[in-house]
Amino acid sequence: MKIAPACVLFLSGCAGTQSALDADGPSALALENLIILFVAVCGIVFVLVMGVMAWALVRSTGVPGRPRPQTERSMGRAVAGAVVATFVVIIFLTASSFYATPGLDRGKADPPTILVRGQQWWWQFTYLDPDPARTFQTANELHIPVGTDVRLRLEASDVIHSFWVPNLTGKQDLVPGRENTLTLHASKAGAYRGQCAEFCGLQHSHMALLVIAEEPDDHARWLDAQRGAAVLPADSEAAAGKLVFMSKPCAACHTIRGTEASGTTGPDLTHVGSRSMIAAGLLDNTRGSVAAWIADPQTLKPGNNMPLVPLSSEELRQLSAYMKALR
Question: Per-residue pLDDT tens for 28-72?
Fold first, then answer.
């Protein structure tokens, strides 16, 4: 009776928002098939080895005290056969792995291109366009159209990171001073969680991202909205929060397009209120979470680059209202 719950718990890892066995893209499907192939081949090898061991334990040894002259020759042939079979299996699995790897960057001619920059500990996404005026940045939340190849250019600003969205593709490293590429393709709409898969410091486990796959029309509307400047505060509290933002060090580190804030150290906050999470997946994007993050970011995520900015309770309420109004 206790085996069934254990099996259910084990199989729960085969599906969900961050599972390599729940593929929704061609690259992820190729890796899923590779995993199944490895498990199947290793399972067959395990069964054969256990069978040979069982046969060796129960087989007849003939008359006690009388050696069997063919035993040594049979053992030699069995060992030689096992060595050859092991070599063939290793070569087959290695070739299968190399064959699946090129699928991570399918590389069509002119797909939409997004520059992905990993930093301790958040993700910066720059949506590139031949017209510089149409290029914009977001953070930690990547939007792509369904059914379209999207080329990612991967860079790192500080240490080695690794971009991994298991449901859509395999992982690819981001190395300082080097540019790698990766192709994303979502077969259906949905939200896919990703993670930095290379240990990059104290808050490595809090460096998540979200890939939002949208129907092409919805994605086009999202792009148009993101290219626009920040909306003007609609109420007095948010308007007061804007004044607080501009008078504090916030404006020196962050950009809010359409205002005088043009810092590049931290994430672009032009439309931060429209994102579903903040601090690279650490917190849901609610007004309370925003206020808590602004009030004491080092307690929530020790070691990150956001300093503690002294604020009164009234200023904190106003600033959190302004951040949520930026949609």
Answer: 888 888 888 889 988 998 998 888 888 777 765 555 555 555 555
Closest by CA position to 226, among listed 315, 301, 126: 126
Residue 123 is classified by DSSP as E
Question: Amino acid letter at 322?
Answer: Y
One-letter amino acid of 138: T
In 3D, which of 327, 312, 317 has the Cα closest to residue 233?
A: 327
Q: Which sign does the torsion angle of CA 58, 59, 65, 67 carry?
A: negative
In the chain the domains, ranked by start, together with CATH numbers, are: 113-227 (2.60.40.420), 236-325 (2.60.40.420)
- The dihedral built from the CA positions of residue 21, 174, 159 and 304, taken in this order, carries a sign that is negative
Please tell me the chain's helix, strand, coil percentages from 3-state DSSP, rounded to the nearest 5: 45, 20, 40
State the residue for tokens 């005290």: 65
C-beta neighbour count of 20 within 10 angstroms:
20
Beta carbons of 321 and 239 less than 8 angstroms apart: no
Q: What is the pLDDT of residue 35?
A: 85
Q: When comparing pLDDT for 17 and 320, which is higher?
A: 320
The helices-and-strands tally (H runs, E runs) of the chain is 9, 12
Judge if the upstream peptide bond of residue 121 is cis by omega within 30 degrees of 0.
yes
